[in-house]
What does this fold into?
Amino acid sequence: MAYPDDLLSENEHVVVHSHPHFKMLIFPFLTFVVSVGVGSWLAILARDAAAPWGMVAEIAIAVVVVVLVVWLFLVPFVRWRTTHFIVTTDRLIAREGVLKRTGIDIPLSRINSVQFEHGLLDRVFGCGTLIIESASDEPLKFDDIPKVERVHTVIYREVNDNPYDDFQRGQTPGPQQTEQYPPGQQGPPPQQPPPSRRGRR
It folds into this structure.
């Protein structure tokens, strides 16, 4: 079963599932390109060194490049890939981390308000920060949410326009009213015939 389907309960469906915006990978990607480029250039220069210093320099350069790539590119990429922001018909789910996994679930019924904010750069990339205020907790901020305005609208509609919000699980939606009768009475009292109208003589 694909993630996050294995987290869902019966009759729960995913409405939004996204990773943080790729904007957070721009700096790691530039670091990767610069590290590999500078490392290759230094390795070419090291070949002109006298033996065995040329080989030692090449090995040292390769180790430094690998450490920089893993630390500044691979780790942020894995963190981005394992960070999930999910909105279902019942709750909001956030998961992040690789070795140390953290997560939070917020039932839609406990959400009081949904806000978003984004600066000029965020508007260029089409992302922003989503602010969720729940019933009893401090506001939670989720950064770099792609299409934050659309996600904001989707959550608002799920919270306020869901026809099942006002009913408990297992009940049929829609008003169901039953008439109450006095004890021993199985139905409404019989209707009395209207009095006949007699003319006056």
